[in-house]
Amino acid sequence: MSSQNHDPNIWQRLHLDLPLLLGILSLMLFGLFVIYSAGGEDLALLERQLVRMGLSLAIMFIVAQINPEVFRRWAFPIYLAGIALLLGVHFFGEINKGAQRWLNLGFMEFQPSELIKLAFPITMAWYISKYPLPPKKRYLAGAGVLLLIPTLLIAKQPDLGTSILVAASGIFVLFLSGMSWAIVGTFVGGILAMLPVLWFFLMHDYQKTRVLTLLDPEKDPLGAGYHIIQSKIAIGSGGPWGKGWLDGTQSQLEFLPERHTDFIFAVIGEEFGLIGSALLLIMYLFVIGRGLVIASQAQTSFARLLAGSITLTFFVYIFVNIGMVSGLLPVVGVPLPLISYGGTSMLTLMTGFGILMSIHTHRRFVDR
Amino acid sequence: MPPRKRITMHDHAAEASLFKRRALFTFACVVILLSILLANLYHLQIISYKDYATRSNDNRIRVVPVAPSRGLIYDRHGKLLAENRPFFSLELIPEKVKDIPKILKELSQIIPITADEQQDFIASLKHHRRFKPLTLKNRLTEEQVALFSVNQHKFPGVAVVAGLKRHYLYNGLITHALGYVGRINDRDQARLRRSEQWKNYAATKDIGKLGIEKFYESLLHGKPGHLEEEVNNRGRTIRTLKSVAPQPGQDIYLTLDLDLQRKAMELLNGRRGSVVAIDPRDGGILALASSPTYDPNLFVHGISSKAYNKLLNSKSRPLINRATQGQYAPASTVKPHLALLGLDEKIITTKTRIWDPGFWQIPGVARKYRDWKRWGHGWVDVRDALIHSCDTFFYDLAYNTGVNKIAQFMEPFGFGKRTGIDIFEESAGIMPSKDWKRLRYNQPWYIGDTISVGIGQGYWTTTPLQLANAAAILANKGRRFTPHLLKSIKNSTSKIDTPIDELAPIELNDPQNWNIVNEAMRDTAHKKRFKDSPYTAAMKTGTAQVISVAQNTRYDADAIAEHFRDNALTIAYAPFENPRIVVAVVLENAGWGGANAGPVAKALLDEYMLRDTLEPLQ
């Protein structure tokens, strides 16, 4: 016991990064309080979330023990398997809430898109880091193919939120790899040019409705606009100091839909006010900052790109979710990371943090 | 190998520094984007805070209006006439009952709920929120309430709920004066909106529809209170935040004398007719009876269309308030007023005598206007003419006066215009004149018309209330009041008498003329009807020939014969020296006035005067 206290490398030996772990744990703890309130003080709900957190932490711990080299070697095969499973979903998947996302494995239901979320940035980092950086244009084409296949397959399910996250994780790898600004500019311009195509040919009606609703939620206050209106009311009525824990009327009286899952940020805004929201953003900023530090300190390009992509994807979760809940972005199904009630995304996120820790704590072994 | 070759081409230091630059750039982007989120939150939570706080409260706070209880109505002695009775209904909260059909079956063993009612109830459940009580049965009897209460433990989720409904204690006895309340309909709603009263009726179900209930609606209704309740997104009440008690309507006391009213209705005994009794000292109406009547309670709970049509189409027209809307030829009951006119205008004097051969002729015209007494009264002066109700005398008087002068003189007695009684159902009657006939019929006035008016017939019509009022002015020797039903309003601690509306008195050229006429009426009364009366009285009877009935009734072959019979009328007051009560009686198609309406007037005065001597009013 005392030897651990004196040994500065105890965390190193456990393959854990203390600042990141503390950031994660404080977010989770905060999340537990909010879920308790948002879930109507349902202890069973809280218990399930606790179990999920424990499981996620265990997985993170296990993943952290694995040498990043292992991920690098297995990334592409897993990616291919993930694509195969996505195709499997396309042909045999179960329809749930109008979207085909789930694959019934007999004993459990499984979302192959979650696997892709992990495998894809690793694959991308592996692919890009094979060649000298900044990447040459011809490799970018290959990267584009790698990116488009899963993105389109997931978007087709349809799961706009996940496909955005997957595409973003790939794009972050490309950007961090030093892709020339000219290409970045062309790419951004291309996306802007694609928007009308997206609107008229690729987006589902319900997705269009979400965008239109964002522009004017009051047009359909009881239909599509209801979520956004109620969530903005919740946040706005929280004021600077909030209504207090367990005292948010919008959430406690159930005006707020999806209040312990995707719209949990509205509960935070309502019960803890601007102060609470800002505190949450600072906690997130800390985790992101630590992730980018880990990335910068990594010793291979692969590790750097992967760590950077994982960290920035984490940020995309935050931005898309809070942007959606506070009425800046259209409604897409992205949870508030580490806070929202729900299993799959937390497992994926924590696996990602496990990879970050693995990268950070295996440095010497990689190098020597 | 080519791949190996490429790897060797990696410049680790350069790649690391490139990455650092990019990472720094992305971190800056992250900070900017998070700032945008924060700026948006600042906009929502600080700048628009008030707006959203209001909307949040609008979401969660429901204001439930609470109806005030309606003011009670008493008679002049404080006897309750209209009250609010609790009525009980059986309600069921669907979410609290597991097996509704089973519960219904068990309930039906205690309280009769037919299979149809059970099915209707189960059907209506579909369109009902599960946590809101749904009425299973209305108007439970007290016995049923007691029976259910004993067994309540067997029926969780089922409850007896009490509400208040207007109840008229004496059913049809006072209907036409009290009126009734009924469910607020679209027209009531429109009227309330126009008068900006609608918000006071948010929780109120019933409103005065007729009579006192309608006229004094604003006094009786009161002001609603409200509950502020916190509700969830499905409208379920979570808790009550605030409660403001309603302000009940004011209790009112009427000038009516319940016992006299009852006596009047007993005397009418279902016959078509009306009795009005007024206290001549202040214009307070002691009895306002119209017969036949109906039970106003029927309307409170919503009358069936069958029952309503029966009332509406009844030949005897119970819905009409005969006392204020029935228009009858006053006949000989206005002879005292005509005599007064003749004396005061010096058309006749007490010395004037005429010879009555049993008829009267317009000078130079062959047509004979018959006296009711075929062989005539012989020589009569004004006193004789009043006591014997000599038509010939009054034919002559009217001929010498002219109709315009008659109309002018009768106007302050209230003929031909509404008295202003405090109920809305009132007709004006007709006090004919040359101008009136030209306007109404576009015809010239004929001398013969004047002759008919001279005995209170022809175009002249009055309501029983007008007759009573005119008689009261006579008895009062010119003092005039607006007849009214409201006596006082109950304040929190005391009764406040409503101000008496006294009108400018009628000033005669010679006030002595009042006495001549009133004494003739006294002598009329005491000659026969009041011969053995322990108190003094004055009266005048009348018998009106009927051409058509009071209202524009359709002619019905079966009814014609009866409807052609004469209307019997009487005015009377007592005591002669210091009148305290004036009555007017009209009996439709009853025949001779003296024989039919006279006893009714006598019995009423007896009731009032003799009761007074036993138990005098203060």
From TrEMBL, chain A:
UniProt pathway annotation: Cell wall biogenesis; peptidoglycan biosynthesis
Highest taxon in the source lineage: Bacteria
GO molecular function (one): lipid-linked peptidoglycan transporter activity
Catalytic activity: [GlcNAc-(1->4)-Mur2Ac(oyl-L-Ala-gamma-D-Glu-L-Lys-D-Ala-D-Ala)](n)-di-trans,octa-cis-undecaprenyl diphosphate + beta-D-GlcNAc-(1->4)-Mur2Ac(oyl-L-Ala-gamma-D-Glu-L-Lys-D-Ala-D-Ala)-di-trans,octa-cis-undecaprenyl diphosphate = [GlcNAc-(1->4)-Mur2Ac(oyl-L-Ala-gamma-D-Glu-L-Lys-D-Ala-D-Ala)](n+1)-di-trans,octa-cis-undecaprenyl diphosphate + di-trans,octa-cis-undecaprenyl diphosphate + H(+)
GO biological process, one term: peptidoglycan biosynthetic process
EC number: 2.4.99.28
Chief localization: membrane
A Pfam family recorded for this sequence: FTSW_RODA_SPOVE
Subcellular localization: Cell inner membrane; Membrane
Membrane topology classification: Multi-pass membrane protein
Transmembrane segments: 20-38, 50-68, 74-93, 138-154, 160-176, 183-202, 272-293, 305-332, 338-359
Function description: Peptidoglycan polymerase that is essential for cell wall elongation.
Family from the record: Belongs to the SEDS family. MrdB/RodA subfamily.
The protein, known as: Peptidoglycan glycosyltransferase MrdB
Organism (species): Shewanella benthica KT99
Gene name of this polypeptide: mrdB
